[in-house]
Amino acid sequence: MANAFRSIPATAKVQPSPFKISITEEKLAAFTQLVKLSELGPETYECLHEDGKYGLPRKWLAAAKQEWEESFDWRKHEAYYNSFPHFIMPVMQGDDSFSVHFVALFSDNPDALPIMFLHGWPGSFLEFLGLLALLKKRYSPETLPYHIIVPSLPGWAFSSPPPLNRDFKLEDMAEIMNGLMNNLGLSGYVVQGGDIGSYVARVMAAAYHQCRAVHLNYCIMAEPDGIKAKDITEAEQHGVLRAREFTKFGAAYALEHATRPGTIGLALASSPVAYLAWVAEKFLLWSDVNPSTSEILQSVSLYFLTSTISTSIYTYRQATPPPDFFPLPKNSGAIAYKPKSHDWPQWFIDKPMGYSWFPKELAPMPVAWVGKTGKLEWWRRHDKGGHFAALEKPELLLGDVEDFVKQVWKK
User: Fold this and answer.
1) How is the chain split into domains, by residue range?
2) 209 catalytic, yes or no?
3) How many Å apart are CA 177 and CA 184, to the nearest integer?
4) 3-state secondary structure 283-326
5) Distance of CA 222 to the CA centre of its chain
6) Computed from CA positions of residues 137, 142, 144, 148, in that sequence, does the dihedral angle turn out positive or negative?
7) Which tens digit of pLDDT belongs to each residue from 262-277?
């Protein structure tokens, strides 16, 4: 079974190269030493609050640092990651060539439906390994009804970073992701996205005929016109309040990423413990079922060991344009409603669109709102789950995507 799910589709125009994650011993030793030498800040009134009211509790960070030093085994996790098929594919964009890393489960079924899953920040392809594990358990290469593609976005993990000599936007990411699918000969596909991946997925659906449908589990936006109170459930009303609390108390990091990415990128890349503190609060506050400390350490280790902390936050300059984002006013802000002061497209989706609503998403927008941004043909509200849906509830997200494509996919 060593080669299971690794058979490249016969339609591929460019052959991807098999890839194996293998961090050098020198880099791993230096990383381990940095973790040990990183000092925790002193106790303060604010960091002694264990409820996270003023940020990450020092107690949590101290325990996580100790686990990192004493029991965390990167090689064990690396071996698990490598149990899934990894590839590297060159993708051209104009005169620039990008190496795109992706994890895939390829089906031997010639009628398999291609589905791409897109991560965000501070996520990575790691979020989807649980979902891939479910598919490997349920199906064989012969019976798998899908080709599953989970790329690392440009600037993340083992994919090329953005170019140094020009701006790089969501539209560029979408072009490269669509190019990856074209290179694989998977020209009619579904794309699924959360967080930043939802923005990229929306652009792909709007801009490329090869993308035939899109499923989102994140759709932060301002309240559109024409929504009546009866259209919003009580749970969704609480979700709107959660989104407003997020924009008021939890989104300052995004404004820093958007306005001073050079500064924060250099600062965070200088210390693994500094980056852990910056990221861990997001995992803990944005989740319904909190990831384990080990899962958070794996994510932070991946960013640090691949030197992608600074190269992964560029999207905020476009996706979090000040001052419209703070707070989200009516009829302006994100995704489908274009602020007049910015030049990004509206990205209304005139293709089958699906939406999964999770109550502890950081901005769980009502189904009726999301329906104003595209041709919403399928949705489902859940009573559990948060921002990192693929990590927290892989069985729910996978079930939603499968039900969505069963309803809307037409060859």
Assistant:
1) 72-269+307-408
2) no
3) 11
4) HHHCCCCCCCHHHHHHHHHHHHHCCCCHHHCCCHHHHCCCCCCC
5) 21
6) positive
7) 999 999 999 999 999 9
Q: Which of 101, 215, 257, 387 is catalytic?
A: 387
Q: What is the pLDDT of residue 330?
A: 44
* Beta strand pairing call for 113-118 and 349-357: unpaired
- What value does the mean pLDDT take over residues 286-307? 96
Q: What is the mean pLDDT of residues 110-120?
A: 97
Per-residue pLDDT tens digits for 235-289 = 999 999 999 999 889 999 999 999 999 999 999 999 999 999 999 999 999 999 8
- The torsion angles phi and psi of 57, rounded to 5 degrees, stand at -65, 135
The percent helix, strand, coil of the chain (3-state, each to 5) is 40, 15, 45
Closest CA relative to residue 353, chosen from 335, 337, 367, 374: 374
Q: Tokens representing 361?
A: 């998403």
For residue 196, give the nearest of 280, 120, 113 by alpha carbon: 120
Tokens 């069963």: give the residue: 406
- The span from the CA of 152 to the CA of 117, in Å, is 10
What's the residue count for the chain? 411
Which residue out of 77, 86, 119, 195 is catalytically annotated? Answer: 195
Q: Give the C-alpha separation, 349 to 199, whole Å.
A: 12
Which residue of the set 316, 324, 355, 400 is catalytic?
316
Is 195 part of the annotated catalytic residue set?
Answer: yes
179 phi/psi in degrees, rounded to 5: -65, -35
72-269+307-408 CATH: 3.40.50.1820
Contact 31, 272 (CB under 8 A): yes
What is the rounded CA–CA span in Å between residue 212 and residue 189? Answer: 6
Cα torsion angle, 198, 204, 207, 212, sign: negative
Taking the model in full, what pTM does it have?
A: 0.94
Tokens 């936007």 belong to residue: 169
Q: Let me know if 403 is a catalytic residue.
A: no
